[in-house]
Amino acid sequence: MSIQIPRGTQDILPGTVEKWQLIEETAKEVCRKYLYEEIRTPIFEHTELFLRGVGDTTDIVQKEMYTFEDRGERSLTLRPEGTASVVRSFTENKMYGNANQPVKLYYIGPMFRYERPQKGRYRQFVQFGVEALGSMDPAIDAEVISLAMQIYKQLGLKKLKLVINSLGDNSSRAAHRTALINHFQPSIHEFCSDCQNRLEKNPLRILDCKKDRDHELMKTAPSILDYLNEESSLYFEKVKQYLSLMNIDFIVDPTLVRGLDYYNHTAFEIMSEAEGFGAITTLCGGGRYNGLVQEMGGPETPGIGFAFSVERLISALEAEGIEITQEQQIDCYVIALGEKAKDYSVTLLQSLRQAGFSAERDYLNRKMKAQFKAAERLNAKHVIILGEDELAAGKVAVKNLQSGDQVELPLENFINEYTTLSN
Ligand code: HAM
């Protein structure tokens, strides 16, 4: 029996991989303009990192981690997200001492979550994310959001909805937490077992429950925005003001709580509103996580970031009917007829490629007609025909496949002659 790909994973085949490359290049280009630098962290980390970083009441930690013991009996976990690793690395490498502050980083790479696979939800997916550490200026919150929007805009997405919320600082959150416990406690037995556990540990996450979202008490739950203290409230006002100044439309949703424990102050998600995008509409999620660096043993350092998966971005592009890759074209296809010509084509191909041309030849001993077909399939600009007679006369025929024009070029100084022809 043949072995198949594991559930929830994908092969990205040639033909599709170009889309991925373009998305990666676009994201990197935008990061360069915003002065975010790339960071690469390991695919696996100590399990403890995610227990502490992501939070032990989250679905990720409770149900979705790929955790294993290595031969040295250490518990390791394939990273389910990037923020915890980046914050660990920031702390471990003492980046809080860098001359340039805030430290602005981006990453792109595979993440792993044992989720129920469906459209837009994979067990291995590629996240692109940024993290800005060291600034508590609302302008950096707005910058991070605008960076995500800029990548989407540059790729042509239009049907987007930016939703923001503030989860407030610790004291705002504590006041809201008490209000939530008082609100849900009398009827908590009507909620799912996850929510019953969340009541004491992290009642905010009840608002994020998929199973109980239609319960009456969800609609009347106390809003975090009513519990923001003055400082948190002013901070949120500034973020909104900056977004408006940048002409970035948003809506405020006080029920947006996000699925990871480390957030405070600004939280945001970007949704696709394209028809046919599917049931999972979130393209990108992020927020502020002041306190996480300290949690990892570093000095008190504020931070904010976001991540999105390339998989969902591609679905959104498809749902909006946007084709981002162009038809591939190669410069030339070398057709060699006869043994001597074939030998010669090996060096010719080498010289063409070294001169910067994309060039191909036949490796299947096909007839001339089939070789022409192959050149057309590869969308070659020119076909270079090497025949025995031409070779003896020191010439080759070069045919432009678009116009049909054919010229003869001398073999001597061929690369220069061909360069002139193709310009
Ligand atoms: P998250 O909301 O868990 O946040 O994931 C961010 C994004 O990753 C989602 O909006 C979605 O695009 C993508 N994603 C998550 N799970 C899957 C999946 N199973 N299949 C495909 N795509 C998926 C975080 O991971 C935070 N680290 C974001 C962040 C960075 N917050 C601050 N900095």
Automatic annotation (TrEMBL):
Pfam families associated with the record: HGTP_anticodon, tRNA-synt_His
Main location (coarse class): cytoplasm
Domain of life of the organism encoding this protein: Bacteria
Chain segments annotated as transmembrane: none
Domain Aminoacyl-transfer RNA synthetases class-II family profile: 1-320
Catalytic activity, as annotated: tRNA(His) + L-histidine + ATP = L-histidyl-tRNA(His) + AMP + diphosphate + H(+)
GO MF annotation: an example: histidine-tRNA ligase activity
EC number, as in UniProt: 6.1.1.21
PROSITE patterns, alphabetized: AA_TRNA_LIGASE_II
Keyword line: Aminoacyl-tRNA synthetase, ATP-binding, Cytoplasm, Ligase, Nucleotide-binding, Protein biosynthesis
The UniProt record lists the keyword Ligase: yes
InterPro entries named in the record: aa-tRNA-synth_II, aa-tRNA-synth_II/BPL/LPL, Anticodon-bd, Anticodon-bd_dom_sf, His-tRNA-ligase, HisRS-like_core, HisRS/HisZ, HisRS_anticodon
Subcellular location: Cytoplasm
CDD domains: HisRS-like_core, HisRS_anticodon
Assembly and binders: Homodimer.
Family according to the record: Belongs to the class-II aminoacyl-tRNA synthetase family.
Designated name of the protein: Histidine--tRNA ligase
Organism: Lederbergia graminis
Upper taxonomic lineage: Bacteria, Bacillati, Bacillota, Bacilli, Bacillales
Gene name, Swiss-Prot/TrEMBL: hisS
